[in-house]
Amino acid sequence: MVKIGPNSLAKLPRVRAQGPKISGFFQAVPILQFYSSIEMNHSFESSKLQDFRDQVLLGSRLFWLGLFAFIFLSACAADPILSPIGSQSLGGLGSDPESTPSPDQDPLGNPGPYGENPEAPFVPPGGSGSEGSDSEEEGQGEPAGESGGSDSSGGTSGGDGEDSQPAGSGAGEEASSNPVCDPLTSGSQDSSSDLQAGIRGEISYINSAAQQVYDFWTYDLATDRYLPANSVDGTVYMPKFDVPTRPFSMGFVPSGSSEALKKDDGNPLVENFSLRFESLLILPENYPEGRYEIAILSDDGSILYLNGQSVIDNDGNHPTRMGCQPAGASPLHLTQNSELELELLYYQGPRYHIALVVMWRLLSEDETAGHDSQCGKTGNHTWFNPDSNPIQPTSNYLKLLSDGWEVIPPSAFRLKNSELNPCAPGSDEPDATGGSPG
User: Fold this and answer.
1) Who is most buried in 241, 278, 341, 402, counting CB within 10 A?
2) Is 178 strand, coil or helix?
3) H-helix or E-strand containing 309?
4) CB under 8 Å to 171, separation ≥6 — which residues?
5) Can you tell me whether residue 348 is helix, strand or coil?
6) pLDDT tens-place string over residues 96-152
């Protein structure tokens, strides 16, 4: 028997380490437990690290989502076109189609009594893309016999004065010294004898193929207005928007002149030009108060604003197409005190056909706008026959008339800032109704 003394106790671990294998096994057990605990701790730490990373990633995503939402809502607040309450809430009627504006609201829901709304700036919707090219009839060479065409549109009665002027014009602005009277029609339209009736238009053009109306206008931050890409010395006056589908090759001839306005290259404006119209839209005395919807037939693109809100977007290159208010939109509630600031942008892309007809109709109390079955129909011969002399309406256009649509009359348009229309009958402007291209 081996005796183990007190001085030998310190050597016991070494003795056990050198002992039989059975002793090494028991000695290895705590080591295995130690490594196992390390592995478990490492797994726990990895899980905590992954959870932390997930939380950081989630927080980052929520931050960027919140930032984008803030930017979008800020843009909506500044831009009525982007706002979800834009054209869907016209008339201040909200979600109740049978409600009417309060006396403290105008027909578009803006606060204040009728006719005292602030000057609404021209605000683009960010530009809408091209809606496709014109039909094969567009751009196939100049058609013959344009000057012989009449502007009769079969049942379109009445006439509108036109009032469009560049943004930022001061009150009491004098009429243009170089007026272009009703240049888009092939004959004289009905017009009002009121010298303040009418629509005024500014001309812009580009030297490349246009795809949308905003190709022609550039926003100037310093003046807070939209400037033409290229301008000419002439201001357009029209009594109403009643231009059926027709060829256009004579350009813009000023009153009292026989020569059309020229671009910088010396050619007349027959394609890739735009007109920015402005006027005040009122309800004529012989029209009943009520709920009205509006539609536009145009070739090419057109966009209509009322009190700065987008009402109809019919932009892009296309043959004559019926653009309507969005389906389900609230109609305009018009009274004898209504006065809406109208701004209409129109452009002609590739030659030669043009069209611009603005219509309205009275709706019943339970009807909403944008549900006409012909909304969106398009074609150079869909609404009118431009090859006939005089131009004749088709069955599609006659159906519009039978459904209550009519061209908005000249008595519904009034020039802004008390301007006098140099093209109105009885004005002192020589040859006030002549000079328009045939």
Assistant:
1) 241
2) coil
3) strand 309-314
4) 417, 418
5) strand
6) 334 444 444 444 444 333 233 333 333 444 433 333 444 434 434 343 334 333 343
Sign of the CA dihedral 29, 30, 35, 38? positive
Q: Where are the domains of the chain?
A: 87-418
Quote the Cα angle for 8-13-15, to 5°: 70
What is the signed CA dihedral for 262, 263, 265, 271, rounded to 10 degrees? -100
**For 78, which DSSP code?**
H
Q: Which of 114, 83, 135 is nearest to 308 (CA)?
A: 83
Question: In the structure encoding, which two tokens stand for residue 373, read together?
Answer: 């079955």
What pLDDT does residue 54 have? 81
Q: How far apart are CA 146 and CA 437, in angstroms?
A: 9
How confident is the model at residue 44, as a pLDDT? Answer: 55
Rounded to whole angstroms, the Cα distance separating 382 from 318 reads 12
Q: Phi then psi for 227, rounded to 5 degrees?
A: -105, 145
| Helix (DSSP H) and strand (DSSP E) numbers for the chain | 3, 18
Alpha-carbon distances, residue 196 vs 166, 325, 423 (angstroms):
17, 28, 10
Give the separation between CA 216 and CA 204, rounded to whole angstroms.
6
Tokens of residue 284, six digits: 């004529």
The DSSP 8-state label assigned to residue 21 in this structure reads H
- For residue 71, the number of C-alpha atoms closer than 13 Å in the C-beta half-sphere is 5
Instruction: Decide the pairing of beta strands 321-324 and 339-348.
Output: unpaired
Tokens of 218: 């550039």
Q: What is the CA radius of gyration of the chain?
A: 36
Q: What is the pLDDT of residues 87-104, one digit of tens each?
A: 333 333 333 334 444 444
C-alpha pair distances (Å), 327 with each of 271, 321, 376, 423? 32, 16, 12, 37
Going from the first residue of the chain to its last (438 residues), give the mean pLDDT of each consecutive group of 10, the final group possibly shorter: 48 45 48 50 64 81 84 65 38 38 44 35 39 41 38 38 37 65 76 84 95 92 87 94 94 92 93 96 96 97 95 96 95 95 96 94 93 96 94 96 97 93 74 37
**How many Cα atoms are found within 13 Å in the side-chain-facing hemisphere of 182?**
29
